[in-house]
Design brief:
Length: 339
């Protein structure tokens, strides 16, 4: 069976690099949404909690429920309020209307719209937002924003940072009038954390850097923690002139030993269509089109590593590391290893 191995030493290294930069592991909000970017939600929650992380954020209540035993609190980013919330968790308030619907007494963080205009409350609406929150007995504990260009060269990130700093000051003052004090703030994702010299917040929200990557720059010298492995289903000699797989896309110029391995696009891999050169970890090329449940390459033994670092695959498919990782099927077994 194919499997995913999670390297615990590399995870320790990444957590330690990040903690050193921001001063404490307690300031990390571990972003575990979408099956922990494909790494395995419960497994990652458990290991991060062991390493001292106390706070996580996820996409949905379902995800939060799966890992509640591991953290002091969990921020749910994309819950759509229905009045039936589990009040053990903290909910992101993505617009004003959410305040009217979410269950009374819920713990909330305001998302603040500083420039990305994807989610959040604008500075001009802070007064109104606090008023509704108060009226509905909501527990406003903090607020955050998200940078749209932290992973791009240029001044946009700095411009947004200034809007954020102003919003933060304003919200602190407004919230105080409604009896909401000691709000916590967070804004930096992985890319922002990497490039920042100083972070003036209570927490950071990091996903991809825990998993060992950074798209923009890597001042933290992170190490990828996930490797993907497949097992041989069968092997044969592909005779000179014979072709393997759908559409006869690869034909042997001489007799070669080929094997078929048990990973395909049903496992969340992008479908390789046989064009261009895509390699597994040992440098062997995929031969012919990828099938739903398998692909073929030169026989490399019973067990092969597809990748230890997804960057090459992401580049090949013209996408970002996140997308290769997050698509890995939850059905693939995940296991912790220490090497
Ligand atoms: C996904 C997400 C993050 C984490 O981003 P990384 O680039 O993986 O660090 C942080 N904040 C919000 C709101 C997110 O949706």
């Amino acid at each position: 069976m194919s499997e995913i191995l999670i390297n615990l030493n590399n995870l320790k290294h990444n957590v330690s690099q990040i903690s050193t930069k921001i001063g404490s592991v307690r300031k990390i909000i571990a972003v575990l949404k979408d099956n922990a970017y494909g790494h395995g939600l419960v497994l990652m929650a458990k290991e991060l909690a062991n390493l001292g992380v106390r706070y996580a954020c996820v996409r949905s209540i379902d995800e939060a429920n799966d890992i509640k035993e591991f953290f002091d609190d969990i921020l749910v980013l994309s819950h759509i309020p229905n009045g039936n919330e589990n009040i053990d968790f903290t909910y992101a308030i993505n617009d004003l209307s959410a305040l009217e619907i979410i269950k009374e007494n819920s713990k909330i963080h305001f998302a603040i719209d500083t420039l990305m205009h994807r989610n959040g409350i604008l500075q001009k609406d802070f007064e109104l937002a606090c008023k509704i929150a108060k009226k509905r007995n909501l527990k406003l504990l903090g607020a955050y924003t998200h940078f749209r260009s932290a992973d791009e060269i240029g001044s946009d990130y700095f411009a947004q940072k200034m809007v954020y700093e102003k919003s933060k000051k304003s919200l602190k003052a407004v919230a105080c009038k409604f009896g909401y004090e000691n709000l916590v703030f967070h804004s930096h994702n992985s890319a922002a954390t990497n490039r920042a010299e100083k972070i003036d917040d209570d927490f950071i929200r990091v996903g991809i850097s825990l998993y060992g990557y950074n798209e923009f720059c890597d001042t933290l010298n992170l190490k990828p923690i996930l490797s993907l492995w497949a097992n041989r289903v069968s092997k044969r000699v592909l005779k000179k002139g014979c072709c393997v797989g759908y559409g006869a896309k690869f034909c042997a110029k001489e007799d070669i030993n080929i094997a078929t391995y048990d990973l395909g696009y049903a496992d969340g891999l992008f479908r390789y269509n046989g064009n261009g050169e895509l390699f597994i970890e040992n440098g062997k090329k995929l031969l012919g089109k990828m099938s739903m449940d398998s692909f073929s390459c030169e026989d490399s033994g019973e067990k092969i590593c597809i990748f230890k670092d997804v960057t090459k695959w992401a580049n090949f498919f013209n996408t970002i590391n996140y997308e290769i990782l997050v698509k890995l099927s939850p059905r693939i077994k995940r296991k912790i290893v220490t090497e």
